[in-house]
Each structure stands twice: as structure tokens, then as C-alpha cells.
Amino acid sequence: MSNFPDGAIGKLRIAHVFRAPLGGLFRHVVDLAGEQTARGHDVGMFFDSGGLSSRVDVALSAIPGGLRLGVETARIRRDPGASDFVALARLGRWISAASPDVVHGHGSKGGALARLTRIAGYTPDAVRAYTPHGGSFNYRPGRAAHRLYMVVERLLAPVTDVFLFESAYIASRFDAEVGDETRLRRIVVNGLRASEFAPVAPNADAAEFVYVGELRAVKGVDVLLEAIARLGARTPAPRLVLVGSGPEKDRLTELARRLGVLDRVSFPGVMSFREAMALGRILVAPSRLESLPYVVLEAAASRVPIVATAVGGVPEIFGPFADRLGPCGDAADLAGRMANALDQSPAQRAAEAAELSRFVAGKFTIESMADGVLAGYRDALAPRRKCPLAAGAQPLQTRAEG
Q: In order of start, what are the domains of the chain with their CATH numbers?
């Protein structure tokens, strides 16, 4: 482990800990790790061995400079269980060998493991950072699981050096449920690369609507299918492409059959965002719960028209255009807003998409995301800086050069 002076910090050793290499959380960690390695820091990752795949290998191999602290895995299940003790021990051994300056936990399980290593005595002097990504705070209040996870969050707050909330919404949930406002915290929103602001043109035979994400209840896909059924009287009846995978695909397929819309709904599976966007003309994001969803950010950046619900951090993405959002769980309202989008002229849809894209471009960049996270590390490390900067050492970069 390094020592740090009062005025600046040099190259950091950063260990990212999370559960599944899937979805927006994995994308966030990969993007953040890429920015950190590009700025000269040494980075490694610890995650669920069950998530290993060629797709994950490709994503990790694209990180500039590679993961110099390496990659370690263990079986990490979504729900708490005995396997967590095995994962904790393996994580502890790995960070003891890697000697990181920062152990950054992502999501409820990754955040718990990262902070439990301090309690267990592994590299106790390393800073513990925590980004919830929704996680525990996306459970509905009052349920047994929610109560259990909030107890865990309250117990782990005292061993957290810095909270890095990805949205003001999650920060507000933390304040309401945990209530520890004395801890160091920053709101650091997810960010996109400049290349992601290129428009996506739909295919000539694109469906009217497209959904991208997990196929499960919290994402509101059942409500979307009911909304499509309500639009069946239009001529021609609109089509829907559901891009993604998940535990409820069979149930949703059966629901589409019962609603009489299965012939207008397709399930092409998992694909890249830009491939998915070419399959539809309007993105629908009908979620019941979200933190700060990448799919909405990406669609906004790509000037894709969006029909979405005002949940979680989605209003933060829309900013001054949040009045375009509607309530979750309301098929009639969703169908009405989808119909309104269809009734707009292509020029009007394009104009609204362009102004939202400009707003997102000014706030949600990968450079500002990395700056905010590194500044959070810096603030947490400040009390631990014990000796002057060594001759020739380079201070922390807060923005990529060049």
C-alpha cells in the first residue's frame, strides 16, 4: 500500500468488487476501470465465477493497459448464504496479496463483501468505497428482504469511507433508510463516451417500439405488453421488440399470447445496444424501479425517441424535460403516451430527441464520472496521507489528457 501527501495522490491500486458481470453495473465498472487504467492507476476486479464468459473476456480485454491487479473470482450468489463466507475468504486473500489503496464495492452484494473484508481484518487501512447501483435500495419498503438489507446497510455504514451514489434518487433513499449523513459522500452520475452520441438510424423494417433490458417484473415488461394490447385497434397495429433475457421470459411470452399480441411481439435475445436500437423506432422503458439506467442514457445520447416512467433517477436524465415521463404500473397511461409518440411527426420526434441528447451530453460523460469517483477516493484518503510526495511521483490526474 502507498502513502499519500496532503496536496495530491499518486498512482492508486484499486480493487473493484461486484457480483454479476451483467447489465449496467458491469458496464459502469468496466468503463470506470478503463478510465482509471488510462490515467495510470493499477486496477483489478473480483466477481462471481458463474458469470465468466467469452463476452466478459472481450469486455475486460478491451480495458487499456489491462487489469494490472488481475481478476479473481468466487461463487457469489444473489441471495445471502453460506457460500458468502467462502467468497469473503477468497476476496480477503486476494486483496491481501494485491494490497490495494481502495477497495470499491458495487451493488448490494459487492458492497457488502468489500466492507466486510475490513471487519474480517483484511487490508484494514485500505479505503472502502461503495456504489449501491440501486441494489438494496431497489427493494420495496416493508418487505422482509427490504428490512433485512436495510439492517445490513446500517451495520456496514460505519466501515464505509466514502459513498459514491450514482443518482440523487439513491442518495435520498439512503438518507431515508439508513440515515447516516455524517459519512463522506458524493453523487457521481453514470457517464457515456463521446462516440455514443452518434445517432442510431432504425432499420427499414424496424418495429414501432423496442424495449432493451432484463425480462423480469421490476422492469415493467408486463405493463408494456398490456399497453401494446390496448394499441391493437390502430391501423396498422404497432409491433414491439423485446431485447434481452431474464427469468420471466416464458411468463411474458404466455402473457403476450393471452393478450392476443404474440404475433406482434418478438424476443430476439441479447445484443448490443446499437443493434437493438436499429430494430425499433421508439424506445419504451416502463420500469417500476431504477437507479440511473444506462439504456435510457444511451437512447437519449443516440437521439432515439423515448417513452419512459418517472422512477428512480430517470427524471435526472431527463432534467428539464422530465414532464415527458409518466407513472409506472399504469398500462392505460403508457399506451396513451406511446400513441402520442406515434402521432407525432418524425420531425417533431427528432427535435425532442435532439434537445434531450444535448442536455445529456452536458452532464453525463465518462470523464466527469471518473473525475468524481477519483475525487471521492482522494477525499477518503486525505486523513491517511502521512508522508510527502516522493521525488518524481506524479499527482493524481482528475481528467484524461490529450
A: 13-191+365-384 (3.40.50.2000), 194-361 (3.40.50.2000)
DSSP three-state, residue 373: helix
The span from the CA of 354 to the CA of 200, in Å, is 12
**Cα 378 to the center of its chain, rounded Å:** 23
- Above pLDDT 70, what percent of the chain? 92
What pLDDT shows up at residue 213? 94
Residues 6+ away with beta carbon under 8 Å from 350: 303, 305
Would you state the torsion angle of the CA atoms of residues 260, 211, 136, 112, taken in this order, to the nearest 10 degrees? 130
Give the integer Cα–Cα distance in Å for 170 and 313. 8
Q: Which three cell numbers stand for residue 33?
A: 476501470
The answer to whether 162 and 185 have CB atoms below 8 angstroms apart is yes
pLDDT at 8: 56
Which residues face 128 on adjacent strands? Answer: 103
- Residue 202 backbone dihedrals phi, psi, to 5 degrees: -70, 150
Strand partners, 310: none
Cβ–Cβ under 8 Å, residues 247 and 169: no
* Percent helix, percent strand, percent coil in the chain, to nearest 5: 45, 15, 40
Distance CA 229, CA 220 (A): 15
- State in Å, rounded, how far the first CA of the chain is from the last one: 29
Instruction: Report the C-alpha gap between 51 and 110 in whole angstroms.
Output: 14
All residues at 6 or more sequence positions from 167 whose CB lies less than 8 Å from its CB, including other chains: 187, 189, 291, 292, 312, 313, 316
Tell me the per-residue pLDDT of 3-52, one tens digit each, with 9 for 90 and over. 443 345 689 999 999 999 988 999 999 999 999 999 999 999 999 999 99
For residue 383, what are the contacts with CB-CB under 8 A and spacing of at least 6? Answer: none
Name the grid cell of 150.
436495510
182 vs 236: CA distance, rounded Å: 57
Helices (H), 157-241: 168-177, 221-230
